[in-house]
Specification:
Length: 225
């Protein structure tokens, strides 16, 4: 491995979704200046929900928000047992939760099956407890289901991917019954959009979003190409 390759890897690893000691305060200032424009709770009740975990939720939220038929996406925590998890506890692996997203979508425009395709097509489901530079079970791949129909959709799609040998390694995505979603702290919502110059966003999140857009152009909202 060349010296330049090692330096590039070290640079990438230095960017992480995990909080820095001096990072949280400055991020909260950004949030105080920029509110998340979301639908009201009453409006959101008109739509279906889906839940996924596939690495840093800053990246995952931005990906699903680019998808047609998706009305709102929230970053948060799910898949664990602890109540009221915080970002620092989850990001540092002090809980059994994973960083996850809550997706509100219009099933008349996009189906749950298509959202599952977005999920698998926008991360590496063969990477155990890791996505990009972020390591630990808090970044594991999870497809949550709320009923037997959704479970079958997920499992059937995994079987299809394996049969078609889309990946060189086994898929390690957890297929987990949804229990509870804990919404992340306010400053995490729309983090990628509000912090385009953040080193992690520039080095990891934006390239990941652009790869998804390139491969799933027919799934994108108008104006997001």
């Amino acid at each position: 491995m060349t010296r330049s390759t090692l330096m590039a890897m070290a640079l990438l690893i230095s960017f992480s979704c995990q909080p820095k000691k001096t990072e949280k305060q400055s991020e909260m200032v950004v949030e105080a200046k920029t509110e998340k424009t979301s639908l009201t709770a009453e409006q959101l009740q008109q739509y279906e929900t889906a839940y996924f975990a596939s690495g840093c939720f800053w990246c995952v939220e931005a990906i699903f928000e680019s998808v047609k038929g998706v009305k709102e996406v929230f970053s948060g925590y799910s898949g664990g047992t602890e109540t009221n998890p915080t970002y620092e506890d989850v990001a540092y692996g002090r809980t059994s939760h994973a960083e996850a997203v809550q997706v509100y979508y219009d099933p008349k425009t996009i189906t749950f099956q298509q959202l599952v395709q977005v999920f698998f097509g926008s991360h590496d489901p063969t990477s155990l407890n890791r996505q990009g530079p972020d390591r630990g079970p808090q970044y594991r791949s999870i497809a949550f289901y709320k009923n037997t129909e959704e479970k079958k959709i997920i499992e059937d799609y995994i079987a299809q991917l394996e049969q078609e040998k889309v990946y060189d390694r086994p898929i390690v995505t957890e297929v987990t019954k949804f229990d509870k979603f804990w919404k992340a702290e306010k400053y995490h919502q729309d983090y990628e959009r509000k912090n385009p110059n953040n080193p992690y966003i520039r080095a990891v999140s934006i390239p990941r979003l652009n790869r998804f857009k390139k491969n799933f152009q027919s799934f994108l909202k108008e104006g997001t190409h």
